Amino acid sequence: MSESTEWCTVVNKKRERRKERFLEVLKEREKWDNLKSKCPFIVMPQRADRIKRKLNIDKLDEKFRSDEWINYQVVQGWRYIKTLKLVDINSIPKNTETAVYSTLQFENEWGDIALFCRE
């Protein structure tokens, strides 16, 4: 009989953990949906993952998910354009009357930079 109660306890704990993870995912999804409604050009986590894999930049997706970068995009209104390598630093566009450009460092050993624009 004790084996059956132990088994039920194990199953219940697994079920509770699964439910907690599901609720965390729902909260995270709701957070990003709210941000997307406020700021339609924000870089969503899926896009950040694709950019990270394509450019092979460590922790790029974590940067885009950080509060600092979310604030930079949502509150301050900067739109992500592209990622520049250290050798491409001369290709940063000049500010014009209609567009202003800014950069943020990824703080990695290769000196990668994210280019943002505010129109």
What does this 3D model show about the protein?
With 119 residues, this protein is α+β, with helices and mostly antiparallel strands. The chain is built from four helices and three strands; from the N terminus they run ααααβββ. The protein has a domain at 1-38. It has a three-stranded antiparallel β-sheet, with no helix packed on it. Strand 2 and strand 3 (113-118) form a beta hairpin. The longest helix has 37 residues, at 2-38. The protein is elongated and about 75 Å long. The mean pLDDT is 85.
Keywords:
alpha+beta, 4 helices, 52% helix, 3 strands, 119 residues
Write the layout of secondary structure elements.
Layout: H1 2-38, H2 45-55, H3 60-65, H4 67-74, E1 79-84, E2 100-105, E3 113-118
Antiparallel strand pairs: 1-3, 2-3
Question: What is the structure about, briefly put?
Answer:
By secondary structure, this protein is an alpha+beta fold. The protein has a domain at 1-38.
